Amino acid sequence: xxxxxxxxxxxxxxxxxxxxxxxxxxxxxxxxxxxxxxxxxxxxxxxxxxxxxxxxxxxxxxxxxxxxxxxxxxxxxxxxxxxxxxxxxxxxxxxxxxxxxxxxxxxxxxxxxx
Amino acid sequence: xxxxxxxxxxxxxxxxxxxxxxxxxxxxxxxxxxxxxxxxxxxxxxxxxxxxxxxxxxxxxxxxxxxxxxxxxxxxxxxxxxxxxxxxxxxxxxxxxxxxxxxxxxxxxxxxx
Lengths: 114, 113
Hints:
The complex is a heterodimer.
Chain A: E1 4-7, E2 10-13, E3 19-25, E4 31-38, E5 42-51, E6 54-57, E7 64-66, E8 76-78, E9 87-94, E10 104-105, E11 109-113
Parallel strand pairs in A: 2-11
Antiparallel strand pairs in A: 1-3, 3-8, 4-5, 4-9, 5-6, 7-8, 9-10, 9-11
Chain B: E1 5-7, E2 10-14, E3 19-24, E4 31-37, E5 44-49, E6 55-58, E7 61-65, E8 71-76, E9 85-92, E10 102-103, E11 107-112
Parallel strand pairs in B: 2-11
Antiparallel strand pairs in B: 1-3, 3-8, 4-5, 4-9, 6-7, 7-8, 9-10, 9-11
């Protein structure tokens, strides 16, 4: 199993550009989520999905869109990049079968917006 | 909003020393997880504690869940340079749905040879 994969690893955008961060998992997990990690802030939840066709907002959703057309894929779209979106983005997944929601993380995408 | 406060935020020690990282909240958690993250990688789960007063050991790492399930600690004995990384605690409350965890802000540990 590859686990959770993310592409690209690094990305530089200019203010106003759009892009999609890709995330895929091969563990058949129902739950997938996107976090951003900033120094001293821990991990903050952007959006999450409990299954194909179902998404919801997390703690910091503004400026981001998501969709979930398959169990495996959960892309994150930046509509019009802003410098405040400079961060490291992590995708995670977990099974809803267990009670403890132990999450598996991808390797992250480091995004810089100039 | 449930908050998890981790302390200290930074820890720089010499190889062989012991250390403790704390994770505190005013909320009750049904389970609490500890993750370790190395530079350039995603967090990796170390342990999950679910019962008040529970103690789990993972080699030189000892994890404890408070009796009231509002706090947890991670103790490392005889730290090694390979322990260097960011340690994150994350909790699920009784009302948490679908794996929406609350994360602490993390403790950056540096162990010098």
